[in-house]
Known about the structure:
This protein is α+β, with helices and mostly antiparallel strands.
Amino acid sequence: MELKNIExxxxxxxxxxxxxxxxxIEAAKEKAYKKNxxxxxxxxxxxxxxxxxxxxxxxGDGVFFEDALNICYPEVYEKAIAEAKIEPIAQADVEIQDxxxxxxxxxxxxxxxxxxxxxxxxxxxxxxRAEVKVMAADVKAELERMAQxxxxxxxxxxxxxxxxxxxxxxxxFLDGVAFEGGKGENHPLKLGSGTFIPGFEDQLIGCKAGDExxxxxxxxxxxxxxxxxxxxxxxxxxxxxxxxxxxxAIDDEFAKDVSETAETLADLKKEVKERLTNAxxxxxxxxxxxxxxxxxxxxMQADIPDAMIEQQIDTIIxxxxxxxxxxxxxLEGYLKATGTDMATFRGMFREQAEKQVxxxxxxxxxxxxxxxxxxxxxxxxxxxxxxxxxxxxxxxVKKAMPAEAxxxxxxxxxxxxxxxxxxxxxxxxxxxxxxxxx
Length: 438
């Protein structure tokens, strides 16, 4: 193997021109013959016993060429990137550039590598941070949500009202014919929840247990099932029961029930306000950090290869698939239900992936410029924390997460800390006022 040329191209592609000698190709052809020649039948010979030269005379000199190239390529490629001193971030795009009369083969390998990154000023950045305020109305709303979580239902004999839950049997019909997927039995439906087709729930208000009702609705034009979209349907419903939601009074007794420390409603309000304040501050800090990173990215120069974006899209989709599985769904079913093809689906995440890739590249460069290092002790301590967090043995954590990956994440975390420590938080109003003055 001879590395004949190295050329840097756009989008952080390094083009390697590699020549595989005739001797290497010949040796690989012999290996290919020994591996695959057994499958070839030649008249006059038992299967797999025909000489290589006879097979090549019958089927052409190139009969073993593709297999030979596949045999020798991995080793040739590894030697080429080692000699070029580059680290691929994805598979190379390979093409045959020339086949010489002497029998050698010249390959052009376009190898995507991590881009060279140049940053602008990354210390002393002014970034927007939301001012955190928790109002009495916020505390009240949270207390009401807590009360809803402790609510109970009670079967009543009266007519159903909004916010009641009715249990119904129903079946849907189009022009008098029942349609697939339009039937349910003993289905709980909270009136006013908006979970059914618009207008459906309102027509059940006033019904009592035992009542039968024809509910007439029109499916939305953008309904997921195209055969139903925009069509009028009649649902024959029977109300089996009506249940009222009874929410506990928000008082001192409620405070004692929902809190381990509160003795009075005033105590609970104080706890809730503190919890909301902490949550809002945490969210404000996350947004502040992202705003800082966005500012650093604005001043960054990097010719990012498409492969990095595609890999990040793959990561996002894997996470999406995992969340679907938690809901007992799969990606194929989701795409079918939403009428989306894979190319369009991937395109939906491109902007997000680009932002994530740029942010991580910027932070890696900050870590490099700041000479951030992670010691073995720091790494081991982080493994212990992860083991405690997930209730796993430390050896299990180490198998699940390679040390190199964790070390890279820790460097990113410390780079963010450097940016945050040296940044100046600016309120939105202050920024707008400064802009007006300019």
